[in-house]
Fold:
Amino acid sequence: MRVAVYQFAPEFGQKKKNIQRMEDAIQKAKAELVVLPELCSTGYQFVSQEEVDALCEPIPEGETVQKFCRICRKRGIYLVGGVGEKAGNVVYNSAVLVGPEGFIGSYRKVHLFFDEKQWFTPGDRGFSVWDIGKAKIGIMICFDWIFPEAARSLALQGADILCHPANLVLPYCQNAMITRSIENRVFSITANRVGSEARRGKDRLTFTGGSQIVNPKGDVVFRLGSDAEEIQETEIDPPAARDKQITPKNHLWEDRRSDSYL
Structure:
């Protein structure tokens, strides 16, 4: 299965422009699955509830998801990307899975980071996995990386690939996702953004780039630079994530001692 990440710097509030940039990049790829950053159409650093309400959108009816659907139908691919979701009077930091037949599902970020707590409601649906034929896809978003339970919940449901849209500013995640892949024996695809945002007197946030794909043995298949705007793709073998045999006498799931864990 051919998979890709697109790493770029969205312009805050410029949804149409950001969506067009993503479409242009995807046109250059031959991947069957493309993972995009967190809040990839809006930008990250909101400064008012009015901005949040104006830029977030219903899922799947909103313009970002509908454009993703058109891209996927046209190219016969799957996309995972971060979208600000408006659900009635509540907003979530969400991500969607879209395919050739249209919208498949969405995930609402469970673990909110820093000022996200000011604008978004924590996710209320837990973690889900979707079967797209060649692979089973699980979604986590950015700060979910620091909680091993997030990746483990997806792996226990049979995820072959952890799709991980992100807007990372801390320096630890890329290496931590190597561990998430090893301890669950799954592929992980982290799609981070680059650039920085400093809006209306807020401290500047500088995003770390380093988008990467890691295999179930913890090998970094590739990692992009800290400031490069590019799409990169590679071949992976999803069935490799279904082999949980660590040694001839150790099996990841059979050796779990859930009776001993808090």
In short: The domain at 2-260 is CATH 3.60.110.10 (Nitrilase/N-carbamoyl-D-aminoacid amidohydrolase). The CA atoms of residues 198 and 204 lie 4 Å apart. The chain is about 20% helix and 30% strand. The longest helix spans residues 15-27.
